[in-house]
Each structure stands twice: as structure tokens, then as C-alpha cells.
Amino acid sequence: MARKIIGRIANTFGLDGSIKVNMETDHPEIRFAQGATVTVDGFGDFTVASLQMKNYATGRVRLAGLDDISQAEKMIGRDITAEVEPLPGTYFIDDLLRLAVLDPKGQQIATVSKVQRLADTDYLVLDSGRYIPFTIGRFVQEPDLEKRTITLTELGLEATK
Q1: Which of the residues 29, 120, 127, 152 could staple to 156 if both were Cys, CB 3.0 to 4.6 A apart?
Q2: What would you report as the CA-atom Rg of the chain, rounded to the nearest whole angstrom?
Q3: Could you tell me the fold of the domain covering 93-159?
């Protein structure tokens, strides 16, 4: 298990202490499940009371013990973390950052500087400014986290041009 950022408090939501959370996870329904324990940076541990997703990237979260807007306002901009295991076939964003990007022949052509979610697809943003869809088997091969590399497919290489 590893402690990972799963969300960031963007604002309050109503007067009852509900918070608007920008999700930093592809699986908010699991990470923010009722009864799950999360940590708000600088404020300690809380139990999730409820989650209502507004769209794929934003949700309304109620935390047990966070009961009014004045408490919630102090948390705006804070990270929410949890002890999590990667789900099968998934990767943590921070594990992908700074990976060396290799062409199909194994030559380094860039480095991953950011992972950006656009609509329902994650993109690797390269230090060259190019975006590569993080679609394993189509644009990229499985990342090698031990070697800190990710190899592009031929189609992925075309997207860098």
C-alpha cells in the first residue's frame, strides 16, 4: 500500500460542511466509498460519509465530523490522501511522471512531464509539449517502472511528430 493523493478540495458545497473535490483518481467510487478513511492535508483523518459525483472529475464529498461551512472553508486547496493499492491494469500518476519515453527501437526521445485527463482519456504530456494518449497496446507499451521507462508503439511515435 502507498499513500497517494486522491483528490484536492476545490471549494465548499452548501452550508453543511460538504466539500467540492477535484478528483485525482480514476476510481472515486472506490477511493471515496462510504466508510473509507481519508486524510486531509493539515487536518488529519476523516471517514467518508458520502460521495455524489458531479461529473467524471468533480464530486461532492461529506466527511464525518466536518459539519459546517466555516470548517470546510479552511480546507480549500488542501490535498486528500489515502493508503491505496493500484487496481489491476492501472498506474498511479506520480509513478508515470519523469519516465523516459523511448521510441520503438529503445532510444530516448522525451520525458513524461505531466499526465492530463481530457474527456475520458489520460494523456502523457511530454517535455517536448506533445500529448500521447495513455492507451496501452495502441500508443504505448506497458510502462517499466523499475527501469523508469515507457516505450511508444509505432502509432505512438507518429503522434510525437
Answers
A1: 152
A2: 18
A3: SH3 type barrels. (2.30.30)
Stated pTM of the model? 0.73
The whole-number pLDDT of residue 27 equals 87
**Closest to 8 in 3D by CA, of 34, 33, 35, 32:** 32
Percent pLDDT > 70 in the chain is 100
Cβ 111 vs Cβ 127: under 8 Å: yes
Which tens digit of pLDDT belongs to each residue from 75-90?
A: 999 999 999 987 787 8
What whole-number distance in Å separates Cα of residue 21 and Cα of residue 8?
A: 5
Evaluate whether 48 touches 62 at the Cβ level (below 8 Å).
yes
Q: Which three cell numbers stand for residue 75?
A: 480546507
Fold of 2-84: Elongation Factor Tu (Ef-tu); domain 3 (2.40.30)
The span from the CA of 22 to the CA of 152, in Å, is 30
Q: Where in the chain is the domain with CATH 2.30.30.240?
A: 93-159
122-147 b/e (C-beta count within 10 Å ≥ 16 → b): bbbbbeeeebbbbeeeebbbebeeee
Query: Which one-letter DSSP state was computed for residue 106?
Result: S
